[in-house]
Amino acid sequence: MSEETINALNTTSSTENEADLQLSNPEAEDTILDPSKEFEKQDSQHGTMALILLAALFGFQLLILYWKSKHYRSFQAVTLFGLWLIPMYLFGLQAHFWRFLSIWVLYSIANSWVLSRDFVEICTDRMASTLGYYNKDGFPRKHLRANICAICGVAATGTSNNTNNNENGDQNHRVFQLACRHVFHDDCIRGWCLIGKKDICPYCKEKVDLKEFKTNPGAKFNKNRFNEDITLFEPSNKSRRINETAVDNKSNTQLGLIQEIDFFHNSKSAINETLGITKSKTKEITENLEKGQEEEGGINNQENGNGQVDFNSMDDVKMFRKRHRIRVYGTDIPNPFGSFDELESKYEFQSYICKNLKNFSYIKPTSIQMQAIPIMIHGRDLMAMAPTGSGKTLAYILPILYDLKGPEKMGYRSLIISPTRELAQQIYREIKKMSIGKKFKICMLTKATAATQAQAPQLREKFDILISTPLRLVHAIQEENIELKNVRHLILDEADKLLELGFLEQTDEIFAACSNMKLQKSLFSATLPSGVEALANNFMKDPIRVIVGLRNAATETIKQKLIYVGQEEGKLIAIRQLIQEGLKPPVLIFVQSIERAKELFHELIYDGINVDVIHSERTKAQRDSIVLKFRQGKIWVLIATELMARGMDFKGVNLVINYDFPQSVQSYIHRIGRTGRAGRSESGCEVPEWMLQLKNPSKVSKQQLRKKPIERKTISTRSTYDLKKMEHKKEIIEASKKRKARKLASAANKYGDKGGGEADKKEDKGLIKTDDKTKNNKLESSKSLPSNKRRKRISEKD
Ligand SMILES: Nc1ncnc2c1ncn2[C@@H]1O[C@H](COP(=O)(O)OP(=O)(O)OP(=O)(O)O)[C@@H](O)[C@H]1O
């Protein structure tokens, strides 16, 4: 039998069998007889299948949404993978599949990391600039107000980590306030800092680690990350209760003090923000405030709604000054102004300056700005003294920018001196902010910039404004790397420090190098002792003195407290107790010396506190990073020496601790002035009565204290045995170093004078130092700055 016949037989037999089976099955018989029944069954099956499919799709969709919300990156990657791979595979790339796959992987990496980033960024920029909220340079164009998102300009009424409904019932995005106090929608700021490329606040251009603060930005710290520290810092229930009562009392006492505290005279809301008081209380305060103003006898009449002032007589001017606590001394003093709008209308300030003022939320000038700006515009020499944090920096930046008009390639025309590098950097940032819109060339003198200018003298011509510390500048002058002959404005920030013995010689040299006949000199500080004032009078031309508030006094809005500790050891115990009771970071602790700063740091770091230390022995990079981290809230407690005491503007500092009492009143005022800035914080003083009645120390003892700090025990909880052991070790090391040096010196004497030369050099240095001291002493006794010729004569005599 052939194969075909067998198959045919098999087929036949199987067909016959099936037919038999079907015939023996009555249901099958029915189906054969009625095919519609078969379709009915299939229909019901299809329905179930469709339902299952829909449910699966729905479930899958939910799963994808969940995935997307949890891990967007991997979701995006897989979606991209599907989008590209499946169609390409289906459309006949099987043959070169692996080659395609590898190229695709490379492409998708590039796509997701570079292309998509840039694409979304362009979109974000475009979005905001279309809305008109910032220009193509990335700065907000419109005036920013509280509760308005700084990027999209839409109301931002939600609170951090909350999704709120606004009045219209729309859902708002979460809202974040950064350390710099600017408010953004969650989405807007994320869009802005997309993949960490623009991790700076779009408003003030200060670097903010937005990634770090995604869920809790700015001064509100990342509680998850620093959970352990939180337990250290969170006040106990008891102290919280005490604090609450204190706030209530505070707001009551504020009713009488309100004008004193609000030296920025900003808004009622600012007062509320500071005090955290309710609407009904606001009304009460407002009424009291208005009553108070009426009682003052219509002083308000001088000012119109915008705060602009029209003076009809000298009495008006006097009243205005009195109201803003401004005292002036000198001849022919220009009138103050009342609002920033007047700068444009009366003084014809360039529009870019006014725009920047609005953009950076400078609504009303502070008292020092009201009086110092007109004086500087009129080209007069100025000595300005105003409380810490009252806006002195802006008071000299604005007239400088006004007078410079625009960039000119004729070398430095304005020079600002600050005692520390950190403060110089802060001033640099502030000028950059205020000069947006004019392409001024501003130079912050560092080792690198000085070297560049030494190599390429033609570069010097390009700059307009120079900011420097005295030492760096004097070095550049001596090396002839810098030309100051065109300088028209010379500003000494923290002037009393720059005219102290340590800096006087350098300041004098800088004065000598600024040879322009039209040089205008201005001194700014929160403290100006009368001796320094007399010294300054010698080199200023018909100066005007402006004093805001009380002379040489701490800012009134700062609450001060005295804690008894008994002995030196008691300080450490007290500070630990403070921490246990609950401190609100950021906290600044001042100590007397670098050594003590290090010691305290080593004590506190083992207590598990988020603490760091800053002093002049740390590298510049370290110092920069510490300042930045402290600003960002990454460091909660910062131990510092006098380096940080002056000028540094840390907006949110809650507490300043003077671990070692400062050596002078001035130092105390500047140190505590790191808090309560821009009118924040509250007043009050808990220094006991008996202490206030103590006799003032004599002049001699004050001077002695300035010259030589009090000797203090080391900060340590180690046993005296351990300490002695350490000291012994130190002594051994010192002795061995000395032995080595002696050996080297005698070897050098034997074989020539190389080593001796070194020693000579060192000795020379010492001589120069003592020379400086004697010169300085002479200067102090004569209370005037010697001219260059006189200085030459002194050195010749020496
Ligand atoms: N007109 C203003 N309105 C609101 N805030 C202002 C105004 N002027 C300055 N500020 C803000 O006040 C803060 C303190 O300013 P600044 O650092 O100039 O104070 P200062 O008087 O120089 O203090 P210090 O004596 O400590 O150096 C800054 O954050 C600044 O932005």
Describe the 3D structure.
It catalyses: ATP + H2O = ADP + phosphate + H(+). Residues 557-716 form the Helicase C-terminal domain. The chain has 798 residues and is an alpha/beta fold. It is 53% helix and 7% strand. The protein is built from 30 helices and 14 strands. The strands form three sheets. Strands 3-10-4-9-8-5-7-6 form an eight-stranded mixed beta sheet. Helix 17 links the parallel strand 6 (442-444) and strand 7. The N and C termini lie far apart (137 Å). The model is unreliable at 1-24, 159-172, 212-223, 228-301, 682-687 and 753-798 (pLDDT under 50). Adenosine-5'-triphosphate (ATP) binds next to helix 15.
Bound molecules: adenosine-5'-triphosphate
Give the rounded overall mean pLDDT. 70
The 3D shape can be described as globular
Strand elements, count:
14
- Radius of gyration using CA atoms only: 37 Å
Q: Helix share of residues?
A: 40-55%
**Adjacency order of strands in the biggest sheet:** 3-10-4-9-8-5-7-6
| Residue windows where pLDDT falls under 50 for at least 5 positions | 1-24, 159-172, 212-223, 228-301, 682-687, 753-798
Strand content: 5-15%
**Biggest sheet overview:** 8 strands, mixed
Category from helices, strands and their pairing: alpha/beta
Distance between the termini: 137 Å
Total helical segments: 30
Family: Belongs to the DEAD box helicase family. DDX52/ROK1 subfamily.
Biased composition (Basic and acidic residues): 751-781
Domain Helicase ATP-binding: 373-546
Catalytic activity: ATP + H2O = ADP + phosphate + H(+)
